[in-house]
Amino acid sequence: MYEEELSAFHETGDTGEIWFGFESVERVVNWLEKSPLSTLTSDIIDLGCGNAAMLLELYKRGFRNLVGVDYCDAAITMAKALAEKESAVIKFEQCDLLNDTASTCSSLSYSTYHMCIDKGTYDAISLMPNNAQLQRTCYIKTVHRILKENGLLVITSCNWTEKELVHQFNNGFALLEKIPTPTFNFGGQTGNRETVLVFKKMDVKMTGSMSR
Questions:
Q1: Is 87 left (phi over 0), alpha (psi -120 to 50) or beta?
Q2: Which residues contact 208 (CB under 8 A, 6 or more apart)?
Q3: DSSP conformational letter for 38
Q4: Which end of the chain has the smaller Cβ count within 10 Å, N or C?
Q5: Locate the Methyltransferase domain: which residues (predicted)?
């Protein structure tokens, strides 16, 4: 997908699609901007940054210590090109959240971030055809490792409910806040198109298992 978007950017200047729409970006950025738990100097990493829409909006709002990682080389190339176009100083690196170690990806090498942002990456990992439960465990361990003490994970999901996410992240994280999202009614039931939660890293030893 990003190969096509990169080609379109070079040909027409099209910056590509934004997962869940720009309103989902604004929802998270507005929370970060207003929350007493974040500052303009907070170290923030976007896990699965794609075309860097989230990071570029954060940069426009004054945040400066920003890092974006993505599994896809073309996504990183696209993100770098868009950041350069906006004169935004953001670090980007191709990384595999499920396998990288300190020796292969400096952005995931040690506990260095106040906040991790995820908009759809955990969803994508959850849909992996081979042992998705194990991959989710690897993801959660990586996030726990790279966060500073009391660091935060701000996660946006359209696949999992609040209850499911709290259950899955109970090994190493505690729910801090739920960011409101628009509701809809269907069949007499009220629901949300997406769930946005803020988890706080707990000082515990991560285990190898994870709840379903």
A1: left
A2: 137
A3: -
A4: C
A5: 44-177
Judge whether 6 lies within some domain: no
Judge whether 35 lies within some domain.
Answer: yes
CA-to-CA distance for 52 and 70, rounded, in angstroms?
A: 10
Q: What is the pLDDT of residues 153-182, one digit of tens each?
A: 999 999 999 999 999 999 999 999 999 998
In a domain, 87, yes or no: yes
User: Is 9 within the bounds of a domain?
Assistant: no
Residue type (1 letter), 128: M
Burial class (CB in 10 A: 0-12, 13-18, 19+), 50: buried
- Read off the pLDDT of residues 82-134 as tens digits, 9 standing for 90 and up: 999 999 999 999 999 998 666 678 999 887 999 999 999 999 999 998 899 99
The pTM of the full predicted model, rounded to 2 decimals, is 0.85
pLDDT digits (tens, 9 = 90+) for 17-45: 655 678 999 999 999 999 999 999 999 99
Compute φ and ψ for 190, nearest 5 degrees.
-105, 135
How far does CA 151 lie from the centroid of its chain? Answer: 14
CATH number for the domain spanning 155: value is 3.40.50.150
Q: Which amino acid is at 41?
A: T
CB of 171 closer than 8 Å to CB of 199: no
Identify the three-state secondary structure at position 165: helix
